[in-house]
Structure formats: C-alpha cells, structure tokens
Design a protein that fits this description.
By secondary structure, the protein is mainly α. The chain contains 6 helices and 3 strands, in the order ααβααββαα. The chain folds into 2 domains: about 1-80, Orthogonal Bundle (Arc Repressor Mutant, subunit A), CATH 1.10.10; about 85-150. The chain has helices at about 1-15, 20-30, 40-45, 50-60, 85-110, 115-150, and strands at about 35, 65-70, 75-80. It has a 3-stranded antiparallel β-sheet with strand order 1-3-2. α2 (about 20-30) crosses α4 (about 50-60) and α5 runs antiparallel to α6 (about 115-150).
C-alpha cells in the first residue's frame, strides 16, 4: 500500500501539487473511510504535524479536501469529496474562461488584424472551445456517475 500511495502521489505531483500535498491526497484516497485526522496523517506519512497543517490548509483552499468535525474524537477529519475532480475541473474551467475573456479583450484592443491581436484571438477561441468541451464532458460524467450510483 505504501508503494501505491507513493506512486499515486508522484503522479498527482505531475499536476502541480507539492509532494506533501500529493501524499496527503493519496493517503486520503487510499483509506477506506476517505477521511483521516491530522494525527492519523502524521502517523501514516511519518512527517511533522506542521507539514500536514500546511498541506491540508492549501488543499482546503483549493477545495480538494474538506474539514469535518468528528464529534466522537472532538477532532477535525480531512475528507475527500466524491466530486473532488469534478470540482477541480470546474475551478480550472472558470480560470480558463477568464483567460479566454481577457485574451479576447486583448485581441480587440490590439486589433484582430494585427499579429498580436490575431494570436490573442486564437488563444481566446482555443480556450473557449476546449473549455466548453471539458465542462460538457465533466457534466456528462457526473450524470453517468449519478445513474451508476443509483443502480448500486
């Protein structure tokens, strides 16, 4: 399991997450409950509490994990949402849409017949088109997943 978690974390690191954040995500994914306390993460990953604190704070801000209060233990548990990748894609789509919009504005300012304006317009069209496809695909997957979950 440790080897799997390390390989999974390494692959997530390729998305831009730091090694520690990737390890936290991999650890949460690999646990049956989908959630662990800070102390459990420290024990599983054999790192300092400060490392876990920094990682979970960032992951929470990115909406990749969420904090739940465990009333039995009176501690916070960090949990992977079932829709985490959908949420991450939608957040990325919002950023891409903003890039497409600003690139289109730049094209208008420079003039679409200028080399710079033409490049910016091309970027805007590309990001807009690919972004629409990503959002449609993610929404389609969500519907498939909902049907599959209902049929269990």
């Amino acid at each position: 399991m440790r080897d799997f978690r390390e390989r999974f974390a390494e692959q997530m690191g390729a998305t831009g997450l730091s090694p520690m954040m990737s390890k936290v995500m991999a650890c949460l994914y690999a646990t049956d409950s989908g959630g662990l306390t800070s102390a459990e993460l420290v024990r599983h990953l054999q790192v300092s509490p400060a490392s876990i604190s920094k990682a979970v704070n960032y992951l929470e801000k990115q909406e990749l994990i969420r904090r739940e209060r465990d009333p039995r233990l009176r501690r916070d548990r960090y949990v992977i949402d079932e829709d985490v990748w959908y949420q991450a894609l939608m957040a990325s789509a919002r950023v891409n849409a903003g890039l497409a919009d600003i690139a289109e504005l730049g094209a208008e300012i420079l003039g679409v017949t200028t080399p710079g304006g033409a490049r910016l317009l091309d970027v805007s069209w590309f990001l807009g088109h690919v972004n629409d496809d990503i959002v449609r695909s993610a929404d389609h997957w969500r519907q498939i997943r909902l049907r599959r979950t209902k049929n269990r």
